[in-house]
Amino acid sequence: MARILRVGARRKLGATYAQHWHEQCIHHPAGQGILRSQNQRGRELSNHNFNTPPDILERVHMLDKRGIGLDPCSNVTSLVNARVSWDEDANGLKPGRSWRGHGLVFMNPPHSMSPYNIEPWIERAYYDFTRPDFVLDQFVGLIPAKTDTAWFHDFVVPFPVKLFLRGRPTYWLDGKPMPGPGKFASMLIYAGGCPTRFGEIFADMGWLIGGME
Hints:
This protein is α/β, with parallel strands linked by helices. The chain contains 6 helices and 9 strands, in the order αααβββαβαββββαβ.
């Protein structure tokens, strides 16, 4: 019981200190800047529209002279410029939405938690693009390299080509680069008929597994 009381007391003290710190920040110019920065960072981390950096997209477009055929999880500020784009309202996971037959498919799935959970997007890509009857030209996915998750082992590991990006890319938000690199490691996954070409285009960007003869 004494230990429980001590833990409760520490929590109460921590909460009191946090409240006092917040009140001090409100009434001090420097503190107000800190709060604004924290609020902005919180908005960025909760946003599921982390747009793909242009330098990565430029290389993706090099895979097919026709460009990107489908972006199944687009948004109003996306830089992908695919021939077919499905935003949140269109819902690329809706039953009956076929990801096949579009040519080059590029996916940068939502990175936030439910209801924009990344897992169903990775699972859909796995079932559509790693099956024996795969007929689409090519697929590229830009995803967090979360090797500790079950979905990574279930749905990412089976992809024939994987590239772990060196460094953390700077994603775009609201039409401009974010203030700094992302807070997580990222990677590319590939399936299709041109793995060697993928390797030639992307090998210098990180650690390539597969994709080179």
